[in-house]
TrEMBL record:
This is Ubiquitin-like 8. Belongs to the ATG8 family. The keyword Metal-binding does not apply. Keywords: Autophagy, Cytoplasm, Cytoplasmic vesicle, Lipoprotein, Membrane. It is a lipid-anchor. It comes from the Eukaryota. The lineage of its organism: Eukaryota, Metazoa, Chordata, Tunicata, Ascidiacea.
Length: 133
């Protein structure tokens, strides 16, 4: 049985993590987004998950983030790195929608505009090595 919360997992865990999209139906995700938008209209809803083949970076304590739209991708990456407690020497790569590498100088608002999912969330994946090679 796989947990639905990454809190109980570490990077060496053998328990299978279930991605946000698989844990919640499209209807549920859209309803959740509607509530978020009503309470926080200026925040960008982002789901950040560990790459499925990642072996070194830890799972985050949460996957859902509400981010100020003017924050740059570089600033957001720093926040995520700090939450993982990884040093500056550790490489962390991000992709958007599992296939686009975000420009680190773009604002979250710009990335959201270009890559928002049909459910209204922006999906990011992180890994310690490039995910395309």
């Amino acid at each position: 049985m796989a947990p639905t919360n990454a809190n109980s997992q570490d990077s060496k865990s053998t328990v299978k993590y279930i991605p946000f999209k698989e844990r919640k139906s499209l209807t549920t995700r859209r309803a959740e987004l509607k509530g978020i938008r009503e309470k926080f209209p200026t925040k960008m809803p982002i789901i950040v998950e560990r790459y499925k083949k990642e072996k070194y970076l830890p799972f985050l304590d949460k996957t859902k983030y509400l981010v100020p739209q003017e924050l740059t991708m570089s600033q957001f990456a720093t926040i995520i790195r700090n939450r993982m407690c990884v040093g500056s020497a550790q490489a962390v790569y991000f992709t958007v929608n599992k296939r686009h590498i975000p420009n680190m100088s773009m604002t979250i608002s710009e990335i959201y505009r270009d890559h928002v999912d049909e459910d209204g969330f922006l999906y990011m994946t992180y890994a310690s090595q490039e995910m395309f090679g």
